[in-house]
Fold:
Amino acid sequence: MTARSHLTLDRQWGQKADALFNVFAGPIVMGPTSYAQMLSAFGFAIGPSKEIVIVGATDGDRTSALTKEIYSRFMPDKVVLFYLESEAAVMEKISPYTADQRMVNGRATVYVCENHVCKLPVTDASKLKELLDVPSGGIK
Structure:
């Protein structure tokens, strides 16, 4: 899968990535150190991955704190989607799995999902940190 297929659930993007990996498979095997980015993309494609959805105002302090928590760590297996409730129809068309994701009690909210299965939403940066510290495939 690619980041685009993770966000849209459109399998054609994953199929295109698979075709690309197949084209480069021989050269990668012969010289893997020359294809670091391709191998990183391949690792992302085979998963598991995290989809992180931030629901909230783009300029809010809480949104900023949550966003900083996400980007304060190296997580090559993630895609991040900023969800504006005012654009719900467009957001759900792009990313169908976000249909039920809303702010909780009017506060910026983050949904941490793994392969489109989401944990309970969080509105606090310390709770988000706990969720993000669990490795992909881990249980918390």
Observations:
- The two ends are 25 Å apart (CA to CA).
- The chain has a mean pLDDT of 82.
- The first strand starts at residue 50 and ends at 55.
- Residues 11-30 form the longest helix (20 residues).
